[in-house]
Amino acid sequence: MKVRIGAGATDEEAQAVAAALAEHVADEVEVYLGEADEPAATHAPLERSTSDEPEERDLGPTEREERLREEIEDILEGGPEKYKERLSEQDKLFVRDRLDLWFGEDGGDGTGDLLFEDGKFANFDSWHPNSPDVDDADPDSRLPADGLITGAADFEGRDVHFMANDFTVKAGSMAERGVEKFLRMQQRALKTGQPVLYLMDSSGGRIDEQSGFFANREGIGKYYFNHSRLSGRVPQICVLYGPCIAGAAYTPVFADFTVMVKGMSAMAIASPRMVKMVTGEEIEMQELGGPEVHARQSGSADLVARDEEHARELVSDLIQYLPDNSDEKPPSQPAQQPAKPTEGIDGLIPKSPNRAYDMHDLIERVVDGDSFFELKPEYGKEILTGYARIDGRTVGIVANQPAERAGAIFPDAAEKAAEFVWKSDAYNIPLLYLCDTPGFMAGSQVEKDAILEKGKKMIYATSEATVPKQSVVVRKAYGAGIYAMSGPAYDPEATIALPSGEIGIMGPEAAINAVYANKLNDIDDPEERKQREQELREEYREDIDVHRMASETVIDEIVPPSELRTELANRFAFYEDVEKDRPSKKHGTIL
User: Fold this and answer.
1) Closest listed residue to residue 405, CA positions, set 455, 351, 359, 465
2) Is the pLDDT of residue 411 over 50?
3) CA 479, 482, 483 angle in degrees (round to 5)?
4) How many angstroms separate the Cα of 283 from the Cα of each of 273, 274, 275, 280, 298?
5) Which fold has domain 83-321?
C-alpha cells in the first residue's frame, strides 16, 4: 500500500503514519513525502495471533440464544396442561397441531407451509417465569401468545394471512394483546391483498380485562370495521372449532364463507347461561347455535364439515375457485368432460311444467366433471348456489331447484341467491343462471317472512352485478322469476333457452283461473268444461312458448339441449373481458 503525505513532514512523522496504517491493513505500507520517488518510511504488516481470528472462535448458539429457544418452546406448549387434556375429549386438536394440519411442513398432505408467526411473545411479561416482572407464575395464569396466533402461510399454493385461537388459554378469549395482533393481521391483509383464514375457537372477550380492549378506538370493535373494509377486497374464510359467543360470533358472520364442524362448532350472540338469565329459556349450546341451526335455518354457515380434516379439505376445494383479491380474475383449470353426457339433458327435463326433477342432474351435464362446489346446500333449498368450471373457467351458478317445492322462490332462497350473486360479483366470478321457476312464492306466511324485501335484494344483486352473465330458460320462467334469474331486462350477455322453455306472467293453470274462471263456471257439462280448459291451456302455452319469444327476439337463441355446454363455454369465453359500468353514485340504498 503506497501513501503520499506533505513534503514538509519529517521522517519520524512518516514512520508513525506507516506504523499506524499497518495496524489496520494486511499489507506493507510505504509512505512518500511530496513527489519523492523513494519512500521515507516502510512498515511491514503486523504479525497477528491466530487465537482470536473469527474463523477460529466458537460461534455456535450462545447461552442467550439457548434461553430464547427455551422460551419459545415453552410458548409453543400453549396453556395449562389440564386444558390441553380436555381437547381430546372433545375430538379437537390443540391449536399448534391444528396449524400443523393446515400449514405444517407438508401441510398435512404436501400442500402448505407456515411461513412465519407474529406476536409469539405477546403478554410474555405478565406470566412467564423468565420475565423480570414475574417471580413465580401461577400455571393457571399462563397466557402464551395471549391466546391468539397470527401469521402468514402457504395454503394450497396461495399466500394467506391467518389467525387461530388457542382454547387452552382462557377458552380462546380475546384480550388487549391478542386484539392488537388480530387488528394488525387484518390491516396487513388490506395492504397485501391476500386472503384471510380465521380458525376460530373463542369464548369471546375476556370480561375481567375489558378495560384494555373493549371500547377502545383500536379495540375489539375495530375487528368488524376491518372486516367491513376487507369485505369484497380479499376472500375471508372462517372455520369454527368450538362455541364462539358474542363478539367472537361476528367474525364468522362477517366472513365471506363460514365452515362449521359437526358436533363441535357453535355460534350465538349469547351463551346458554346468558340466554337463561335474560329470557328464562333453558337451551343447550348446539340447539341454540350449532351447525344444524346455522346451516338450515339462519343461513349463517355455508358448509358443515364432518371433522377437522374434512374442514380443511372443504376450504382447500373452495379456495381453488377464488382470486386472491378483487383486482384479479378467478383461477382456471384444464378443461374436463362433464360427469354425465350432455345428450341426456333434454330427456331429463319433463314435458309437464309441474313435474319435478333434480337440477343437480342438469348441472352435472353442463359443467366440468366433479367441479360443482355447492354452498349452503341445506338453506333455501329451492335455489342451488355454488361454483363450478365450464371448459376450465370458473363460474358461479344460481339455479332453481324443481325438486324442492317446484322451484318457487321462497324468502330464504332469495336471500341466499342475493348474497351469492353479490359475493361472486365482488370477486369477478361470471354468473350462470339456470331458470326453472313458477316465480316468487305467494301467501301470508312468506309475506311475514319478508318475501318482498328478500326478493328485492335478489333482483338488486342481479341488476348491480357487472361480471359476465348468461341466463338459460330451462323450462318455466313465470312471473318475476325471470327478473330475479337475470332475464333479458337484466343486462345478461345472453338469454338463451332450451326448447322446453316457457316465459310468461304466470303458468297456464293460474292464467286460466285468472282470466277465464267466470266463463268456465258457466259450463255445466263436466266433460265440456274439461275439454275447454285443455283448449285454453294449449292456447296459452303456445303464447308463452320460447319459440314465440325467439321469433320476437325477446331471447337470443334456442339451443339444442345437447349443445348447451358448448354454447355456454363459447359465450363465457367470448365475453370474458366484457366491461360494465354502474351509474355514478356513492352506492345503492338496498342492502
Assistant:
1) 359
2) yes
3) 95
4) 9, 10, 8, 10, 17
5) 2-enoyl-CoA Hydratase; Chain A, domain 1 (3.90.226)
